[in-house]
Write a structure and sequence with these properties.
The complex is a heterodimer. Chain A is mainly alpha-helical. Chain A contains 4 helices and no strands. In chain B, helix 4 (154-163) packs across helix 5 (173-182) and helix 5 packs parallel to helix 6 (202-211). The longest helix of chain B is centred in the first third of the chain and has 15 residues, at 47-61. The chains are: A mainly alpha, B alpha/beta. Chain B: This is AMP-binding protein. Chain B: It holds the Pfam family AMP-binding_C.
Chain lengths: 81, 381
């Protein structure tokens, strides 16, 4: 698994645990708003945290849809090239 | 007209001028204006000395002088006639603009007060900002001593204040909090503290009183359009409610959700949000500090005041970071002696806030990042 994927999985887990929620098993197929106890503010936190830690902002030119962890990883890997 | 009295002294790095001989030079004859760049500070020719010399030269030649703080391209085609001082605006709401001021508008009103004691001023602001230039002129007119080190950060300025026994200071509340943190073991003998440019909250005023008990503290309310409106000297945040019926500089104050300044046919909306609390009118933040977090409006400054008042937190900067999901996200930069205590206190506060207002990104720093004008940056793209 790529370094970026590791970071995304770790930060997602961190955000869920900070809410004092029990973190379910996260896989790349997990969908943020369906399978994980996350809301839109948590997603925004994840995006901002990722920008701060990786320096990558795949949304610079506007919003792009994503639902699952795998889709988000693809966006970051695409923007990092 | 201003002249430099021999009692005025200026202390800059590698330069100590007492009884300065600033003689106007005639080298400016035939020139349309004088321009000095804010990045032109060198140890053998420090900036404040050069600014004073430039003002004297421009006054002598009766031409404008431009203090170009951020070294921008200047359009020389639309200059005022005669002596005027050009300064760049802070640029908080866009690109900095060049605005010319007549000397009479900049000159302090309270000079030559016979009861005044000799002051040693620390220059906290950039000398090419409106507030910075006022401190320079105040020191010149009152024949005081001015200690300036343009490139020093606030921690170094705090040390300079102790080294030179500074007893007068003009700063934003954010600058003042940073200085107080540096002075936790020893403070300079401050007698006069003037706050301006941001909200002076009760917590900051109380901390100043505790750490500098002998200082006379006042906080000034001024706007870009109308200049200084009033100054508050009772050590309490905001201003007395009875002032809403009074006139200041020909302006009648009225309260809606923001403070309004009215004269005959004109009403200026200051954009400063206020709330009435007992016999006080309190400032709660700029109207443009209101950000939209996923459809919920959050006032960054109101939230920041709550955070600064928490136990263990010495200063904070609440800002909004843009993101594609909720538009803005609330973030906070904190100064604290014990990060664990600060985190706990913030967590407790966050539980009482609506989810959109909870700071999501929390960072710690030794000193809050401030803009060139000593204010906190609020919106990050």
């Amino acid at each position: 698994m790529s370094n970026l994927a590791d970071i995304i999985l770790n930060e997602t887990r961190q955000i869920i645990e900070n809410k004092a929620e029990v973190c379910p098993e996260i896989t790349v197929e997990s969908e943020f708003l369906v399978d994980l106890p996350m809301d839109s503010l948590d997603l925004a936190t994840l995006i901002v945290t990722l920008e701060l830690t990786t320096g990558i902002d795949p949304f610079r030119d506007g919003f792009k849809t994503f639902h699952s962890i795998a889709e988000l990883i693809a966006l970051y890997e695409g923007a990092a090239v | 007209m201003f002249v430099i009295d021999e009692l005025f002294s200026l202390i800059e790095p590698d330069l100590q001028c007492s009884g300065i001989d600033f003689t106007p030079s005639s080298s400016c004859e035939g020139r349309a204006f004088i321009e000095l760049s804010g990045t032109d500070n060198t140890s053998n020719s420090p900036l404040v000395s050069k600014m004073i010399q430039a003002m004297l030269d421009a006054q002598q030649a009766d031409i404008p002088v431009i203090f170009n703080r951020t070294n921008q391209d200047i359009d020389g085609s639309n200059l005022p006639t005669g002596f005027a001082i050009g300064l760049l605006t802070s640029g908080t709401t866009g690109q900095p603009k060049l605005v010319f001021h007549r000397l009479s508008k900049l000159m302090p009103k309270n000079a030559n007060n016979p009861e005044k004691v000799a002051s040693r001023w620390l220059l906290c602001y950039h000398p090419m900002s409106f507030a910075g230039l006022q401190v320079i002129l105040q020191a010149i007119v009152s024949k005081d001593t001015l200690i300036a080190d343009v490139d020093a950060n606030l921690q170094c300025k705090a040390e300079l204040a102790i080294k030179h026994n500074v007893n007068a200071i003009s700063a934003t509340p954010s600058m003042m909090r940073a200085l107080l943190m540096s002075w936790h073991t020893k403070s300079p003998p401050l007698a006069v503290i003037t706050l301006g440019g941001e909200i002076a909250d009760q917590h900051t005023l109380d901390t100043i009183k505790l750490q500098c008990p002998k200082a006379k503290v006042r906080h000034i309310y001024a706007t870009t359009e109308a200049g200084v409106i009033f100054s508050v000297k009772d050590g309490l945040a905001g201003f007395p409610r009875t002032w809403l019926k009074q006139e200041f500089n020909g302006l009648q104050l009225t309260a809606t959700h923001t403070l309004q300044l009215n004269r005959l046919n004109e009403s200026i909306d200051t954009g400063d949000c206020i709330t009435l609390s007992g016999d006080r009118v309190l400032f709660t933040g700029r109207e443009d500090s209101l950000v939209n977090v996923g459809g919920v409006k959050v006032n960054l400054e109101t939230l920041e005041q709550k955070i600064i008042a928490l136990v263990g937190i010495t200063d904070a900067r609440v800002y909004a970071k843009a993101n594609p999901i909720t538009g803005a996200l609330i973030c906070v930069e904190l100064c604290a002696d014990d990060q664990q205590i600060a985190k706990e206190a913030l967590k407790e506060l966050a539980e009482q806030l609506e989810p959109a207002a909870r700071p999501r990104i929390i960072t710690f720093s030794e000193q809050i990042s401030l803009s060139a004008t000593g204010k906190k940056q609020r919106l990050i793209q």
